[in-house]
């Protein structure tokens, strides 16, 4: 399904809702709970105040302890309805008769007959969006696994699931148009509040791992990214609560007057903050899920070459545990492929020489492979790369030189688990089809690394994220405006 089709379906649902309301909204039945007062409808006196000729009371009956009053629209106007029992008033409300003949209850955009179609349409549209996101996600996971857009689809899918369940709960407890608008506006707040305890506990955990990371890897702001992000999400979640408390107490701004604008400005601000927090949390969760999926994904056993991405070595030229883990993972895959298919592969250790390194990373890995029993004919060393992007470009140049033009060799790469996703994305940017495997590393390291992947993903797709958040915030502002209009 194309985006245009999805948009047209949304417009069609809006038109269908409008049609249902136009057909059914000419009348409205007010239900008054009179249980314990009287069981006879004639015992109640219905009085109209205001523009009394704009509506007509066409029927009045009792049902299951409720007094039902059916009103019909005559022309545009507003009327107040007071219901008096045998002793005193038992109910008061207002009815708005609009120019198109629709009657709304307790608000200019209040409840009306047929309005239940709106939350139903919202739920259907969310279900369609969820189906579309899942379909696109599954397709691109199979065809283009290493792309940031897959994380975006997954994150939006997580948010759609929460919104769908939230709307379904309101569908079965429908309380009018304004209540539906308020429920949609509160969805992001509900999501952020629900995840706050989880975010707080994870922030403490991530802070602990960041402290370990700084002790071992050095003190810099990059090694505190996880803790900083966790604190930002927690603070952003509770900030609207403290702001609301302060506004309730201060005399500088009156947020209690429903006919004013201060209450709705606060509502719009809260909604915008919660939308951004919920969106970031969904994308963070999606990034972690997808990065873990990438790290545990096993490539098909049909590979011709295995690129081993380099990293820092010891000063004596031996491999660090991190780099050795990458080489061992490549050896493990080669062994499994040989056992299952009988196919040998060529190892491509890739990495140049750093300023404080006695030899190139490729040479150090080659020595390790030779000691592990790999024949030199199965090793193609690439020793000019300075970073991951160059690892793939230079390694593929060597592979193409060996294979010849027009060849389409099957490529795999080995790196550390937290780095598989980023490495695969770098390969995809250069048009290199390669599947990655990840070796284990210390827990304190990969937690912060996944946060860095999240930041990189947000930066890479910043226009898409900005557009999505902007549309969500603009939609919330429109709903706040409608809630404000309902109090005219």
Q: What is the strand and helix layout of this fold?
A:
Elements: H1 3-24, E1 27-33, E2 45-50, E3 55-63, E4 66-73, E5 77-84, E6 89-97, E7 103-105, H2 117-143, H3 148-171, H4 177-217, H5 225-249, H6 262-296, E8 305-309, H7 321-341, E9 346-350, H8 361-371, H9 388-403, E10 411-416, H10 420-429, E11 434-439, H11 443-460, H12 462-485
Parallel strand pairs: 8-9, 8-10, 10-11
Antiparallel strand pairs: 1-4, 2-5, 3-4, 5-6, 6-7
Helix pairs in contact: 1-2, 2-3, 3-4, 3-6, 4-5, 4-6, 4-11, 4-12, 5-6, 5-11, 6-11, 6-12
Which features characterize this protein?
488 residues, alpha/beta, Immunoglobulin-like, Rossmann fold, 3 domains, 4-stranded antiparallel beta sheet
Characterization of the model:
Helices cover 56% and strands 15% of the residues. It has 488 residues and is α/β, with parallel strands linked by helices. It folds into three domains: 76 residues, Immunoglobulin-like (Sandwich), CATH 2.60.40; 200 residues, no CATH class; 105 residues, Rossmann fold (3-Layer(aba) Sandwich). The strands form three sheets. A four-stranded antiparallel sheet has the order 2-5-6-7, with no helix packed on it. It has a four-stranded parallel sheet with strand order 9-8-10-11. Strands 1-4-3 form a three-stranded antiparallel sheet, with no helix packed on it. The chain is elongated and about 100 Å long.
